[in-house]
Amino acid sequence: MAPHLRTISREEHLAFVASRPAMSHMQVPSWGDVKPDWRAESIGWFDRDGAGRERIVGAGLVLYRPIPRVKRYLAYLPEGPVVDWHGTGLRQWLDPMLAHLKAQGAFSVRMGPPVVARRWDARTVKDAIADPAAGRLRDVPPDSQEPRAAEVVAQLRALGWRRGEEESEDGFSAGQPRYVFQVPFAGLSLEEIRGGLNQQWRRNIKKAEKAGVKVVEGDYEDLPAFYDLYRETAARDRFIPRPLGYFQRMWTVLRAEDPDRMRLYLAQHDGETLSAATMLTVGNHVWYSYGASTGRKREVQPSNAIQWRMMSDAHELGAAVYDLRGITDTLDESNHLVGLLRFKVGTGGRAAEYIGEWDYPINKVLHKAFTLYMARR
């Protein structure tokens, strides 16, 4: 029998989160509190066990974004929903979800299936960066491929879903990275993880230790110090910074749900904070979320020091994966993002490609109008 879907309480959603080894930090109830401009709803899929008792078998956090002057919504499930993507068929999960979201006033649905398609080892990515003929990571032969991912893509297309990048060049403003860099921790000692770092990383960690860099855990009161470095980083790396209030809200609501959900780290030298970063945890998956640093005293390597402290703490928490989040797809040395890619590659992990975000236009006219509106912003 196909599972049925209904709105679930925060308590039901958290119980489902606790029953899973891990899921995206954007699929826990508190993430809806991080986004006050969106209306949040937790949904759950249910079937019955052998005794006829109802049990939850899937869940999703839906964020509803209103469009101007019209009481209709873009329904967005970032890095979700959490269902059996490789089971007997996606229709039994997605059809009731679409019906529910349409009844809630959604004109379009966007979701990010947590399905990895391909992976590249650190050595492969490093060699590709050095190869002038390698323009993009997507064109580099992967070291491993997940055959079931192609089945998911084929099912989505057959059900009328469209990959977000195919919809328009810019797509919606809401979106998560398709390419990420992750360090596998499962079954490895901390010494083995350190041994997987490249030589430059190990050298820089030693430099930071000898120079007297201290990495400490921060608190709510330290968020302004993080934010000062974050604004400097935004100007240097050419992105628009989020406001301080966003991080203060993240801290308050995520830690209210679970004290380990978010941590703040500060790398200090002679009383000066040189680097700062946030770390998020759900189950055995740990993310390096936001990072910030100053251009001063780079020679004492505070960024390597803070990452190694976070990796060490993640290992102590029992992490199976340390996730450094998004990386650029371009391998062009002239692109300013390649430096960040090279930094992450130094951890010795693997680049991963997800199958991307997918749209279902319930109302094609409103979907197209909203896409054009967001492209002009």
UniProtKB/TrEMBL annotation:
Name of the protein: Lipid II:glycine glycyltransferase (Peptidoglycan interpeptide bridge formation enzyme)
One Gene Ontology term from the biological process aspect of the record: cell wall organization
Similarity annotation: Belongs to the FemABX family.
Classification of source organism: Bacteria, Bacillati, Actinomycetota, Actinomycetes, Kitasatosporales
UniProt xrefs under Pfam families: FemAB
SUPFAM superfamilies the UniProt entry points to: Acyl-CoA N-acyltransferases (Nat)
Natural source organism: Streptomyces atratus
Alphabetically ordered keywords of this record: Acyltransferase, Cell shape, Cell wall biogenesis/degradation, Peptidoglycan synthesis, Transferase
PROSITE patterns, alphabetized: FEMABX
InterPro entries to which the protein is assigned, alphabetical: Acyl_CoA_acyltransferase, FEMABX, PG_Glycine_Bridge_Synth
Recorded GO MF terms: aminoacyltransferase activity
